[in-house]
Design goal:
The protein is mainly α. Helix content is 62%, strand content 5%. It has a single domain, classed as Multidrug-efflux Transporter Regulator, Chain: A, Domain 2, CATH 1.10.1660.10.
């Protein structure tokens, strides 16, 4: 299991996150309401937080201590998210460049088979497989 997967697994209930971050439950829910964190929900609708969520809350807390308002925090975090997405896209492009033609064909074939197996069309706009079920 990769570190990325481990860090994004929702493991912690709100009580543990409160102890780790020294934030109140109300503060944590407030940041969720404003789209700064996105905890997973269990079947019983309880919030579970990942390591990433805890890191984000600690970052929010630090920015608040530096007297940054909520609007500023949203901008800072969105810029960081965009940078992270850009790095991820660069990694995807370099990984795609490393594929041989045979490997690319194999990947495309398996995607088409999987899309048909689960009887759900590919959601990419303009993709033709959604018409062949």
């Amino acid at each position: 299991m990769s570190d990325e997967v481990r860090r994004s697994m929702p493991l912690f209930p709100i009580g543990i996150v409160m102890q780790l971050t020294e934030l109140s439950a109300r503060q944590i829910r407030y940041y969720e309401e404003h789209g700064l964190i996105f905890p997973a929900r269990t079947e019983s609708n309880r919030r579970h937080y990942s390591f990433y969520d805890v890191d984000r809350l600690l970052e929010i807390k630090s920015l608040l201590e530096q007297k940054v308002n909520l609007a500023g925090i949203k901008q800072i975090l969105s810029m960081k998210d965009e940078q992270a997405r850009g790095k991820f896209e660069e990694q995807k492009v370099s990984a795609k460049e490393d594929l041989s033609n045979a490997e690319l064909r194999k990947l495309l074939r398996s995607e088409l088979i999987d899309a048909g197996r689960f009887n759900k069309p590919d959601s990419r706009p303009g993709h033709m497989t959604r018409f062949f079920h």
